[in-house]
Amino acid sequence: MTVTGTTLVLTAPAAAPARGRTPGPYRRLFALPGTRAFTAGNLLARLPMGMFGISAVMMIAGQRGSYALAGAVTATGLAATALVAPWTARLVDRHGQARIALPATLIAVLGSLSLIVCVRTQAPAWTLFASYAATATTPNVGGMSRARWTHLLRDSPASHHTAMSFEQAADELCFMLGPVLAAFLCSAVLPEAGTLTAAALLLGGMLLFTSQRATQPPVSAPHPGHSPLRALRPVLYLFLPLGVLFGSMEVTSIAHLDARGLGAASGLVLALQAAGSCAAGLLYGTLRPRGLRTCLTTLSIAMALPWAAAATGSVPLLALALLLAGMATAPTMVTAMSRVHALTPEGRLNEGMTLAVTAIFAGISLGSATAGTLIDHLGPTIPYALPAVAALAALAIGGTSRTSFRY
Fold first, then answer.
1. Contact present, 206 and 141 (Cβ < 8 Å)
2. Around Cβ 210, how many Cβ atoms within 10 Å?
3. 3-state SS string for 228-254
4. What are the residues facing 2 on neighbouring strands?
5. Which helix (H) or strand (E) element contains residue 2?
6. C-alpha pair distances (Å), 127 with each of 55, 60, 76, 116, 124
7. Is the predicted pLDDT of residue 143 greater than 60, yes or no?
8. Which of 175, 262, 300, 351 has its CB 3.0 to 4.6 Å from that of 50, i.e. a possible disulfide?
9. Can you point out the beta strands (E) in 259-369?
10. What is the pLDDT of residue 112?
11. What is the distance between the alpha carbons of residues 333 and 313, in angstroms, rounded to a whole number?
12. Which contacts of 264-267 are long-range, i.e. CB under 8 A and separated by 24 or more positions?
C-alpha cells in the first residue's frame, strides 16, 4: 500500500499474521490508512440527517402551536433537497469533496440558525420556509463516504462489498439514534437544542471528513453526454417503491402503536426495525453477496410479516416482525447501491448516488402520504399491506431485466 500525491493506492493485500487468527473483514477494512478518521467524520456529519426533520417539527410546533405549519416547512425542505442535492453532488464530483462540501455545509448550517432565529422572533411564516429550504445544500456525506471506499477498493470487490455493507449499517444506526437524540434535546433541554446540536455535529463532522485529503477520490472531468440519470434510470425506478416501503411502514407503525396506547414507548418498538437492518448490514458484509432478485424476494416475504402480526393485535409479535423486516432491508439496499456504482459513469459517482437517495426520498414522501390517507379511512392495521405491496412492486421491477439488475 502506498500513497502517491493525494491518492491512496492498494498494491497488494497484507500478508496474514504468522500466528493467531486471520483479521476479520472489518478489521482489514479499517487497517487502511485514513479510513478511521474519515469514517469518524462522516458518522458525526451523518447523525444530523436523522435529527433535522424531527427537531424542526418539534421546535416549530412548540413555538408556533401548529403541526400543519411544521409539516409544511419540512416538506418544503425535502422538495428543495430533491432539486438541489443532485446539483451539489455534481459540483462535488467535478471540483472535489473538500472544495464544495464545506461551503455547501456552511450554507446549510446558516439556514438552520436562521430557522431558529425566525421561530424565536415570531418572524413571518415565509421566513421559516426560506430558512429551511437553505438546508437543502447539505452534502450527501453518505455518498461521499461510499465514493471514497469505491476509490480505495476499486481492485478488491470483496472488501468493497464489506465497506458498502458497513455504510448501510451506519445509515440505519444514524437514522435510529438521530430522532431519539433530537426528541430528547427538544423536550428535555430547549425546543431549539435539537437543531443547534444537529448543526454543530454536521459542521464539525464535515470539517473532520474533508480534512482527510489522502483518501479523497481524484477529480476527473466527466465525459460529455454521459448523464447518470440516463444510465441509472432502471435502478431509480427500483428505488421509488423501496422509498414507498420505508415511508409507509414508519407512518403505519406510528399510528398502529399509538392506537395500542404505547405513546412515547412506540419509539423503542420502531427502533427495532432500524436495529435489525443495522445488524443485518454488518453481517452481510462478512458474507458472499447475493443477487438482487434474491434479496428482493426475501424482502417481499419479510414485509408481509408486520401486516400479519398487526392483524393479531399483539405488540410483542409486531415488534418481532419489525425486527425481521428490518433485517431484510440492509442486504437489499447494499446490493441495489452496488448496481448504482456499476452503472454510474466515471467521475459522476457522488451525483449518481445522490440521485438514488433522491428517488428514495420521493418514494418516502409518496408512501407517507398514501399511508396517512389509508389510515384515516381504513384504520391503522390494513395499511400495513402497503409496504408488502411496495416490496412486490420492487421485485417486479427488479425482475424485468436479467442484465441490468444482475449483481
1. yes
2. 24
3. HHHHHHHHHHHHHHHHHHHHHHHHHHH
4. 9
5. strand 2-4
6. 17, 12, 12, 11, 6
7. yes
8. 175
9. none
10. 92
11. 30
12. 267/179, 267/180, 267/183
